Amino acid sequence: MKRLLKSGLLLIGTAAICFYGCKPKGPQGAVIGDAASKVYVAPGKYDEFYNFVSGGFNGQMAVYGIPSGRLFRIIPVFSQFPENGYGYSEESKAMLMTSHGYVPWDDLHHPALSTTNGEHDGRWAFGNANNTPRVGRINLKTFRTEEIIELPNSGGNHSSPFITENTEYVVAGTRFSVPMGDKTDVPISTYKQNFKGTVSFIKVDPQTGRMNIGFQLKTPGVNFDLSRAGKGPSHGWFFFSCYNTEQAYTLLEQNATQKDKDFIMAVNWKKAEEYIAQGKGEKVKSKYAHNVLDEKTHTATTEMMTEVLQLDPTVLKDIIYFIPCPKSPHGCDTDPTGEYIVASGKLAALIPVFSFTKMQAAIAAKDFEGEFAGIPVIKYESALYGEVKKPGLGPLHTEFDNNGNAYTSFFVSSEIVKWNIKSLQVLDRVPTYYSIGHLCVPGGPTRKPHGKYVIAYNKITKDRYLPTGPELTQSAQLYDISGDKMQLLLDFPTTGEPHYAEAIPASLLMPNSTKIYKIEDNNHPYVAKGEKEAKVERKGKEVHVYMTAIRSHLTPDNIEGIKLGDVVYFHVTNLEQDWDVPHGFAIKGAANAEILIMPGETQTLKWVPDEVGVSPFYCTDFCSALHQEMQGYARVSPAGSNVPLKFSTGVIEDNGAGSK
Amino acid sequence: MKKLIAVAGIIFLFSCAPDKSKNAEEFPSQPAKSAVEEVISDPTKGLGAVKNVTLKIPLEKDRVDRGLAIYEMKCSACHKLTDQRVVGPGWKDVTKKRKPEWIMNMITNVDVMLEKDPEAQKLLELCLMRMPNQNMSIGDARDVLEFMRQNDGEK
Questions:
Q1: What chain B residue is nearest to A35 in terms of C-alpha separation?
Q2: DSSP assigned state of B74
Q3: Which of B23, B79, B111, B126 to mutate to test the interface with A (most CBs of A within 10 A)?
Q4: Counting one residue from A and one from B, how many pairs have CB atoms under 8 Å apart?
Q5: Other C-beta atoms within 10 Å of A521: how many?
Q6: Which of residues 25-44 of A touch B (CB under 8 A)?
């Protein structure tokens, strides 16, 4: 018995050491109990949640089912997508326009699902472009990107696109501070004098979702990392994590990690609105693109914007305050009550939890320890609710359940730690495989988390899957959090690198999902509403083909009279009005791409023929038993030839002897 | 040996099949079929929501015009106005061969018709192409019917 007890203790001891001291080893992560039945979604049944997962460096957002982990859809946002022609079709190219021209590939880190009263409303998903700073908006009825706005005076849009509780604003905080305004050609070593940060508040129209930059706060030169809006009592405030308060401009790994504390920046955006109402602020010349998809013409357009309203919080007081926060804070997460702000210092051995009430009292009492670049710094203890002691190594992000608990990811110790917000006590910990970054509890950032699961998005998979050469799949892991102990249920691979993700109950989106585009509502300038309107028109060197597609033929399918030197536009209208009957279109030698056309939609493929002859074209999406018959020919004659423009379908001309 | 493994597999599947878990019950179920599957007493009228159609003489001009517009947008790709079959059968004399109710049910409830109506099934065997659901309301179908009557020479 004694021996048993001893070995038991030894076991517990070893486990504890392992939890604290090292990364879990080997692929054999302990799965216990009836994990399989908890993630099994029987054929024909549906998942309980949609999971919107950022694709990181692929610039896309992916949609998975939870608990099955099945991938349903990849939504292209900031990158071209060969699967559906996004960024290739003439209609969608404008979505990827920026002040730097056409940018076909960016880096999407964070989704944010729209909320009303701090709860998911199932209308839009926002995503950030980290490299060329932008915010995109996806319509959750069509699962399509329908708007992208660029952020001027920003050096990398990482602290974004977090939203206020009624989706009044989407924020965009610059990761890099940069010189801006008239003085941009300056020595890098003049960072302290010349480099500034900005935090943009993008106003969202409550009906249409349309975005425009409401205002931009000009901040001291630091790096902004992540952010969260206040909610409930703290609605009207926004909290940002800042690092590099050392204001280093080289070898940040060392030079930006000198101080014991960096800052959480608290922004009173209602105060900023008051100043704007009084006519304060300065219109600053700035060039940025605003791209909008028109759902009726299925076409995106770009408007180049020329100015933005900037507020300087060193002049307009009481908009921002700094709160010291240990060390190099990353995640900055507001709990469901809106009272607690959890900041995770990447290099800190504790997690500070700030109290909104105490912070307000400190501001009222001017309980400041000094100023940083003209901004008051609240005393750490005056804003602090308490600290979670020795939670693990390398805390990054925190999500919340509906029972007052928090779940923090730890990159270095590769684990999720569950702790109680009120008591600040650690309740449970589970290993992740390996090196977790973000994590997601369904509804975790809202006022009413749906709970039930936590999903880990890992940075390393190593030996968890069949190897595929040096490039391995990225992955996520699903844990059941309905009991006291977190339980690992499932590994599932992800496309691209998953950063942040949100999950929303299927019941909030499923009933509203668009099935078709009504052909009656199609206002595309080159639509053919029925085969009678199918035609070919020449406009100088341009040839416009108004083509229709229906199971299983294209009209017209014989086209003659195209000449070398022409630019041919195939405007293909899918006449189908039934769910899940897309058609595709491709023509030999098209340098651009193929297109995919949803029922009732019109999409355009540009083709510049480069040789005389007859080029085949066909439908690329298997549509019926006679899909393989859905094809046609385009004849290209030499420049200056007198072959007349001619088009038809189903017309048989006997031109004499063929093969018999 | 192979058989043995198969049998073992089956036993395994059955013995280990999880009881209906609590989770599975909470998943949103498949949406109810929107199509009307009610069987109508007169089989020549087809299956669907359309039970009795009153035809007027002379033809209702408004309906004919609207029916033509719908035909050109949603039907003409597959149906000629002659008796020539292309993708689908030509429309000539369709109103003489079919009850008005059958035609309208075929237009508005095509998936159920193709599954259960013997006449619709014969057409599928002939054309080898399922008629697509073109998202037409009963009103749309009535307009198309009126246009078909005109096409068949009614005044």
A1: B18
A2: I
A3: B23
A4: 88
A5: 9
A6: 34, 36-38, 40-42, 44
A195 CA to centre of own chain: 27
CB contact (8 A) between residue B24 and residue A45? yes
Low-confidence ranges of chain A (pLDDT < 50): 1-23, 660
Tokens matching residue A226: 């992540």
Q: Which amino acid is at A9?
A: L
Radius of gyration from C-alpha coordinates of chain B = 22
Q: Shortest Cα distance from B15 to chain A (angstroms)?
A: 14
For A629, which DSSP code?
G
User: In this structure, are residues A575 and A549 in contact, taking their beta carbons and an 8 Å threshold?
Assistant: yes
- What is the enclosing helix (H) or strand (E) of A380? helix A380-383
Amino acid of residue A360 = Q
Q: Which of A34, A581, A624 sits opposite B129 (nearest CB)?
A: A624
Query: Residue A433: which of A406, A399, A472 has the closest Cα?
Result: A472
Residues 6+ apart with CB under 8 A from A118: A165, A166, A231, A232, A235, A338, A446, A447, A448
- In chain B, the N- to C-terminal Cα span, in Å, equals 75
In B19-41, which positions are buried (b, 16+ CB within 10 angstroms) versus exposed (e)? Answer: eeeebbeebeeeeeeebeeeebe
Contacts of A650 in chain B (CB under 8 A): 86
* Residues with Cβ within 8 Å of residue A303, at least 6 apart in sequence: A289, A290, A291, A292
pLDDT in tens, A506-530: 999 999 999 999 999 999 999 999 9
Tell me the C-alpha distance between A236 and A257, whole Å: 31
Asked if A11 and A19 touch (Cβ cutoff 8 Å), the reply is: no
Q: Which residues pair with A562 in a beta bridge?
A: A636
pLDDT value for A626: 86
Location of structure tokens 């939504």? A75
Q: Helix axis angle, B138-151 relative to B61-70, nearest 10°?
A: 100
Contact call for A575 and B77, based on CB within 8 A: yes
Which residues of chain A lie closer than 8 angstroms to B112, CB-CB? none
CA gap A255, A252 in Å, rounded:
5
Distance from CA of B83 to the nearest CA of A (A): 16
pLDDT at residue number A259: 86
Q: Are the CB atoms for B25 and A40 separated by under 8 Å? A: no
Inter-chain touch A518–B135, beta carbons under 8 Å:
yes
Please report the pLDDT score of residue A1 as a whole number: 42
R_g over Cα of chain A: 28
Listed residue (A444, A447, A331, A338) closest to A391, CA to CA = A331
The pLDDT score that the predictor gives to residue B41 is 57
Q: Quote the pLDDT of residue A343.
A: 95
Contacts of A598 in chain B (CB under 8 A): none
Q: Write out chain B's pLDDT in tens, 155 residues.
A: 444 444 433 334 443 434 444 443 344 444 444 444 444 457 899 999 999 999 999 999 999 999 999 999 999 999 999 999 988 999 999 999 999 999 999 999 999 999 999 999 999 999 888 899 999 999 999 999 999 999 999 99
Residues of B in contact with A578 (CB under 8 A): 132-135
Q: Give A161's DSSP letter.
A: -
For residue A482 the two structure tokens come to 């309905």
DSSP notation for A178-197: EE-TT--S--GGGHHHHEEE
Taking Cα atoms as reference points, which of B109, B87, B120, B55 lies closest to residue A548? B87
Q: Does B76 touch chain A (CB under 8 A)?
A: yes
Place of tokens 């699961």: A453
Does residue A350 contact residue A426 with C-beta atoms inside 8 Å? no
Q: Which residues of B touch A552 (CB under 8 A)?
A: 87, 129
Q: B-chain residues within 8 Å CB-CB of A626?
A: 128-129
The domain B44-50+57-155 belongs to what CATH superfamily?
Answer: Cytochrome c-like domain (1.10.760.10)
Task: Please calculate the CA angle A208-A282-A359 and round it to the nearest 5 degrees.
Answer: 75
Helix intervals (H) in A455-576: 506-509
